[in-house]
Amino acid sequence: MKQILGFLLLISTIFPVAAQSPVAGNIPHTPKSVLDDFMDQRFGMFIHWGPVSLRGTEIGWSRAYEVPVAEYDNLYKQFNPTLFSADQWVKTAKDAGMKYLTITSKHHDGFCLWPTAWSSYNIMNSPYKKDIVGELARSCKKYGIKFCVYFTVLDWHDPDYPIHRGREGIDPKADMKKFVTTMKNELQEIIKNYDPYMLWFDGNWESPWTDEYAQEVYAHIKKLKPDVIINNRLKSISQNIEAGSDQNVLHQDAIGDYATPEQKIGELNMNDPWETCMTIATQWSWKPDDQMKSLKECIQTLAKTSGGNGNLLFNVGPMPSGQIEARQVKRLQEMGSWLKTYGESIYSTKGGPYKPNEIFAATRKGNKLYIHLFQRKSDGLTLPALPGLKILKARFLKGSKLPYKASNGQITLSIPEQLPDPNDSVIVLELDGNAESLPVI
Ligand code: FHN
Predict the structure, then answer these.
(1) Number of domains in the chain
(2) Does 51 sit behind a cis peptide bond, omega within 30 degrees of 0 on the bond before it?
(3) What was the pLDDT predicted at 17?
């Protein structure tokens, strides 16, 4: 059986796809059970990495600007991250309480972190010569972390892609059909060899990328792996004037399973799945002495994201050595410690029913309503009453009981002078019914 499978795998990588017209109609949607499972994870690690870390400038965007093209495109010849350990990175994610990990297999600069047969601009032609994507896939499997792959639609390095950042206009020598065929072959390699839980597309805003190409690639992917989760950035937004503003919403069509607000917390939404992607510092790829977020901001971002019924994909940019900066590892460990105590108020919860704000956020699971208290404004926290449900008990999670009173359509919780946690003190209200049935209040 293994021989047959091996032969089929070989065939599937030897016989590439041919350019074909988009497949309309019955493209399989990602099963709701798979998406529900994804949203239960709540917290993932985003990793932006590549030879550009040698310069400490932004991946993709600094090519032809802070770093001249010729210099940028030859960095891979010096890229030798000998201290890279996939196990270390994955254990850092796990210790942080992260449940999935998304690696930039190919960003806008076109460099591939896996041994692709479709481009020589890949990790095997660097001094390092090891399959970064494959090692991360294996470590994620070993440590029970879901493995996800970031894949750019636009590619400013590929001569077949008509836009080359730093050069004006559309390149008449480019060949989009050939480019899309290469993209489909590379995605076939990634799906066949690494079995990703999710594909995180990006770079869907430039004019050469059309919805027809998006449909063609989507159909190709879904034929290879019907249950793979896909974000909303395969769909072309090139017709949308403010590129990027469309990423915050989920278009009601067959392409894309969830919305991707970026560097901000998404709006409370009980219908459409969403995931905020955000940097732990300010730059996506590694930047020396970058300004890193405080623990308070990290924890409250996670709580507000969950309170909005969304996930948080939190980004680190590893150094050219292959290590994640020690201070970033420490910050993530601190988040993991908080989650060890309060994780039940984040994982597998729903957001709401109250909208997140600067004082508190709310999450819920079964008959429990969690109030994430960020700051004590007074000796009482007043909330609108919960229609049709009563509070049976109120206490700090892992802590003391809280006096409360419910009257005149309001609930008032007595808040002690000293809060149990300086970043997010979680209160749990046990109700006489299912908190998840409550409407947004
Ligand atoms: O251009 C990219 C950027 O480099 C980074 O990868 C972010 C992450 O979501 N996405 C694009 C900007 O929207």
Answers:
(1) 2
(2) no
(3) 59
Cα 105 to averaged position of ligand 1 atoms, centre (Å)? 13
The domain that holds 299 is classified in CATH as 3.20.20.80
Q: Which residue's CA lies nearest to atom 1 of ligand 1?
A: 203
Nearest-CA residue for ligand 1 atom 10 is 202
Nearest to 110 by CA among 147, 59, 162, 70: 59
Q: pLDDT (tens digit, 9 = 90+) per residue, 357-382?
A: 999 999 999 999 999 999 999 999 99
* Sign of torsion over alpha carbons 386, 389, 394, 396: negative
**279 Cα–ligand 1 center, Å:** 10
Same domain for 363 and 337: no
Q: Is 25 left (phi over 0), alpha (psi -120 to 50) or beta?
A: left
CATH number where 380 lies: 2.60.40.1180
Shared-domain flag, residues 130 and 87: yes
Do 401 and 269 share a structural domain?
no
- Atom number in ligand 1 closest to CA 58: 4
| Domain endpoint, select from 312, 345, 378 | 345
Rounded distance from Cα 39 to ligand 1 centre (Å): 21
pLDDT digits (tens, 9 = 90+) for 237-271: 887 756 556 788 887 766 899 999 999 999 999 99
CA of 76 to the centre of ligand 1 (A): 21
- CA angle, 74 as apex, 101 and 108 as ends, to 5°? 40
How far apart are the C-alpha atoms of 311 and 43, rounded to whole Å? Answer: 6
Long-range contacts of 291-295 (CB under 8 A, 24+ apart): 292/327, 292/328, 292/331, 293/331, 295/331, 295/334, 295/335, 295/338, 295/423
- Asked whether 128 and 81 are in contact (CB, 8 A), the reply is yes
